[in-house]
Here is the input.
Amino acid sequence: MKKVYLKPRKEESLRRFHPWVFSGAIQSIEGNPEEGELVEVYAADRSFLAIGHYQIGSITVRVLSFVQCTVDQPFWCERIRAARELRKAVGLVRNDNSTYRLVHGEGDHLPGLIVDVYDQTAVMQAHSAGMHLVRKELAQAIVEEVEGVTQVFYKSETTLPFKADLQPQDGYLIGGDIRIHSATENGLQFHVDWLRGQKTGFFIDQRDNRLLLEQYSKNKQVLNMFCYTGGFSVYAMRGGAQLVHSVDSSAKAIEITDKNIALNFPGDKRHMSYAEDAFKFLAANENAYDLVVLDPPAFAKHRDAVRNALRGYQKLNARGISQIKPGGILFTFSCSQVISKEQFRLAVFSAAAETGRKVRILHQLTQPADHPVNIYHPEGEYLKGLVLYVE
Here is the structure.
């Protein structure tokens, strides 16, 4: 196995179990590893540090283990089994909930890998060349270790490093039922389009926050901005909302939202949907809602975009805070990994100050237990949310 040697005193982060080796820390590489190949990492004194997947870029090695071991099929099965046991331990595997994240990258000691489960189907995304190369082994481990999963769909055409030139193709690795399925989340049914939908087909990371919104929805007039497939809208309906309006610029998203409402509340006239721009819709509907959800797509996907993203969050939240009814409740989120909790909170604070309204924080929200954060890898905490009471 080819070896990576670090510069003197550059091993501290690995000694603290951080799972990334950055290119600037590397002194030399023994051999010429290919993208995605397994390599061993050594300190300058030649002591073993880790084994992981090699890749070209600022993150040169994604660590799989901090002990010398054989990375083979039993290794992948053990990691998948451990991930499954965590989901069972936190109560996510049950009859009224067949939707959960099985693998959350570094949070499950499988950097570069995402796996979401929708009933009998696992949807896999590789974010590294190494995980792409072992996709078939991983798929086999999933169906062996996860009871109830019978097929694995691979969806990595848009997630793998472009420079790796891997030319991945989405498709079934195991199974092949191409029908669009529904899956159950907290007793509610949702259509999941893992063939053409965003991410793996559904935003599982908002499950707990949707449940919280349901508790606030009774007799409320609810606006769900950037609704995508209408998750918050469905929960608001079950919570007894007086009316629910779903808004997204994507007509396809609105179509799926309407299907999800009909799946759970057929013929219910409380819901209406709009394929419109968020800012224009908010501007035209001042003082119309007393519960508003602002859950936009990531405004920043890399650090160069942080400044513009923070301005975007401030502008959006200022609009939401100024438009909501007195005594209204605002759920606001950022899913941008490069935006910190402190930066997001400051943007919302600035937005509130801009409006001049009295605003109090009721809840500070994050991602659920099936999106665990490796304590040695704080970068894994990406979802930030606030629930605000606006006088």
Observations:
- The domain at 73-186 is CATH 3.30.750.80 (Transcription Regulator spoIIAA).
- The chain has three domains: 2-65, 73-186, 203-390.
